[in-house]
Write a structure and sequence with these properties.
about 100 residues, mainly alpha, 3 helices
């Protein structure tokens, strides 16, 4: 049951990452929530296999903080790359048309 809550927390944090970062229109709406949920699930399972207790504070901190950081990084990188590639493509189209 705790895994479900951890994944839900990761999805929510990924959705927040999508909203607070710029370039919302250049990436998919579900990228942040998907990354957040997957990272939270992987971290939670890895930490439970490592022997961390379900009711401990640190498993929650690590799983949710890791999910938030991963979602922020992925959203930031995708937004910057998409903007850069779009600008390069537009420049190539302008030089061909002139």
């Amino acid at each position: 049951m705790e895994l479900l809550f951890a994944v839900l927390g990761g999805v929510i944090l990924g959705a927040i990452a999508h909203v607070v970062l710029p370039w919302r229109a250049t990436r998919g709406t579900l990228v942040g929530p998907a990354v957040g949920g997957i990272v939270a699930a992987v971290l939670w399972e890895g930490l439970t296999w490592a022997g961390w207790p379900y009711d401990g504070t640190w498993i929650w901190v690590v799983a949710l903080l890791g999910a938030a950081v991963a979602a922020l990084v992925v959203e930031w990188v995708l937004g910057r790359q998409r903007t850069k590639h779009d600008a390069e493509y537009y420049d190539r189209l302008k030089t061909r048309g002139a």
